[in-house]
Amino acid sequence: MKAVMVVGTTSHAGKSMVATALCRILARQGFRVSPFKGQNMALNSYVTANGGEIGYAQAVQAWAAGVQPWVEMNPILLKPQGDMTSQVIVKGRVVGRTNAADYYENFFEPGWAAIEDSLKRISEEFDLVVCEGAGSPAEINLKHRDLTNMRVAKYLNAPTILVVDIDRGGAFAHVVGTLELLDPDERALIKGVVINKFRGQRALLDSGIEWLEKKTGIPVIGVIPWLEQVFPAEDSLSLFDRAPSNTKGDLTIGVVRLPRISNFTDFDPLEAEPSVNVRYLHPKQPLGHPDAVIIPGSKTTIADLIALHKSGMAEEIQNYIAAGGTVLGICGGFQMLGKILADPEGIEGQEGRYRGLGLLPLKTVIAGQKIARQRNVTSNFPQEGLPVSGYEIHQGRTRLLEESEGTKALFDDANLGVVDESQSIWGTYLHGIFDNGPWRRAWLNRLRQQRGLRSLPTGVANYREQRELMLDQLADSIEPHLDLKPILPSLSAVS
C-alpha cells in the first residue's frame, strides 16, 4: 500500500496542517487519497454517514482529499473526560472507559488489530494514504505501546516527513534529538524535514539548514511560513492562543470556554463571519455584555456545570438573561440550560442529581447508550422552513418538564432543540448548526435587529463551500514551499 507518514517533533508542530495540505495537493495530482490517524486523542469529533465517531481533524482531511469521512480513517479515538480517564471509541463505536495504564494493558492488541483492519479496508478503495502521527514519535516511555507513529510507518514502509515548529525556538535541537531517539529502522524512514511557522528572513536560516542536512543526512524539504488562516484545532489548548476573531465586528458573541469543552469547531463559521467577534471566556472571567452567549458542548457536562456554579459564571449567565441577553446552548450546553441533570449510573463519574441553570424547563438523564448520527431537519425558528443539517453526539436524554408552556420546538424534530417564547434562550443537540449559512444569518440577524443594525443577506452558501476555499488556500500557501521529490519517487508507481 502506498503511503506518506507525517510526524512531528512535538505536539502542535503542525502535523495536522501539513497532512491536510498533502491530502489536497496529492488529490489535485490525481491520486485517490485517504487520510489516516491510527489513534487520536481529541474532544473535537465528527459523525460519519454510518453513525461512527472520528476525530474532526480526520474529517477535515477527508474533505481536503475530496472524499467522504470513514471510521477507518481514525479507527481509535480517545475522548478525555476527567479523573485521568478517557472514553475509548474503536471504529466509530464506544467500547469502554479507561485510564492510561489500563488502556495499554487492555486495548493495545485490539487497537492494533483495528488499525490493521482499517488500513486493509482503505487499501481496497484508495491509491494512497496520508498518515498523521500524534505528539512525538520519540517518547521513550511510550514507544513500545505507540499505536500512532512509527509503528504505523514501519507497517506501511511509508516515507516519513518530520515537522518541526521553529516559532517555539530550539527547532534544530528538536530535530536532532528526535532522530537520535528513533531506532535505526525508524530513522531510515525519515525522508525529509519540514520547518514550520517560519517568520524571519529566509537567508538567515540557510546556514542552519545546511548544518542540519549535513548533521543528519536528511534533506529539509520545506520551510513553511507562518500562516494566519485559522485551521481547525484538535484540542482546547489552542483556544488559549486564539485571538478574538474580529475585533471590529458589529456583534460580539461570547463562548464559555468550559474546562472540558468539546466540538468548538462548531464556531468556525461564526469566526469566519466578518461582522462577528467571537470571544472565548474562561468561567472566572467577567461575562461582560456580549450580544449573545454560547455554552458549548462538553465531554463531562455535569463537572463543567459544577464549575460554572462554583466560578460564579452560572449566576452571571442568569443575570445576563434577566437583563435581556441571548443564550444558546449546544449539546452539553443545552443540557445545562435545564433545571435538572441526573447521572444515576455514574457514567460521567459521580452518580447523582444536579441543579442546572434553570433557564429552560428541561430534565436530562445521562444514559449508557451514546447517540451518534447525522441529521437533516427543517427549522421553525428564527425563520420557518430552512433546511438544517448537522450531527448529534450525546449520552443524555432530554425531555420537557410539565411546566413547558411558552417553549417551542426549534426544528421539526422536537427532540433536537427548543427555544423560549421571546427567542432569548436557545438549546439544541445539533453540532454544526452554524455551518448552515441561511440559518446562521437568520440567527445573527435577530441579534442585529436588537442592536438596530441592518440585516445581512440570508441567501448565502453553507460553510462547507467556504471551507473548500480555505482548504484550497491552505494547499496553495504550502505547496510552493514544499519539495516532495524525496517523497514522491516511491509513489510514482501509483499513477
Query: What's the arrangement of strands in the largest beta sheet?
Result: 15-13-16-18-25-24-23
- Average the pLDDT over all residues and give the rounded result: 93
Shape: globular
The number of helical segments is 15
- What is the CATH level 1 assignment of the largest domain? Alpha Beta
Can you offer a commentary on this structure?
The protein has 495 residues and is an alpha/beta fold. The protein has two domains: 2-230, 3-Layer(aba) Sandwich (Rossmann fold); 243-464, Rossmann fold. It is 31% helix and 28% strand. It has helices spanning 15-28, 56-65, 100-106, 108-125, 150-156, 171-181, 184-187, 202-216, 237-241, 268-271, 301-311, 313-322, 332-336, 437-450, 463-478; strands at 2-8, 33-36, 39-41, 45-47, 53-55, 76-80, 85-90, 93-99, 128-132, 160-165, 190-198, 220-225, 251-256, 261-262, 276-281, 292-295, 297-298, 327-330, 340-343, 352-355, 362-378, 387-400, 407-409, 417-420, 425-428. The protein has a seven-stranded mixed β-sheet. A hairpin with a 5-residue loop joins strand 4 and strand 5. Helix 1 (15-28) packs parallel to helix 2 and helix 1 (15-28) crosses helix 15 (463-478). The relative contact order is 0.12. The model has no long low-confidence stretch (mean pLDDT 93).
